[in-house]
From TrEMBL:
It is found in: Cell membrane. This is CASP-like protein. Belongs to the Casparian strip membrane proteins (CASP) family. InterPro entries: CASP/CASPL, CASP_dom, CASPL. The gene is LOC130462751. Keywords: Cell membrane, Membrane, Transmembrane, Transmembrane helix. It is a multi-pass membrane protein.
Amino acid sequence: MDKVEQQPNSEVAVQKSVSRGFVIAQFVLRILIIVFTVVAVAVMATSGVTLSFFGVKFGAHYYDSSAFKFLMAADIIVGVLALFSMLVSIYFVYRKPSNSTHLYCLFLHDLILTMLMISACGAATSIGYVGMYGQPQSAWFKICDRVGKFCFRMGVSVGFSYATFLCLLALTVMTSYKLRKA
């Protein structure tokens, strides 16, 4: 009889540890998202380079390209909303028992941020590719051989943005899995 009573308690302990593991993973991934977006924005904002050719100044800055401005805006939006969602999810974890409605809202939130991030990363990557290799058919010449520091820093920023995307993708998959089990 003691074994029968102990079995439900052990199942409850397993469910609590799974929930605790889920919450910790969510918290860590959201912290990583915030850190990655802050680094991506900081690197991009300081990536400007100005050169002088025969007395004519030539500059390369992120705000010269709509794709890089889009990535900057997406990084800022995702970072702020990740902080907001982290605070809200902490509130729901400690104040109310989690239910499928909270998880579904969290899933939709993460899914929208994931789509925003991958679209911004894709746009910045395509412009970065043109800057790196050019597009001779369209008379777009490569510029990275002239402004290597700018291209390197933009590559680092885009890399951190892709890391943000991967964290968001992991959050989306985790939340959808948890929803499926709920």
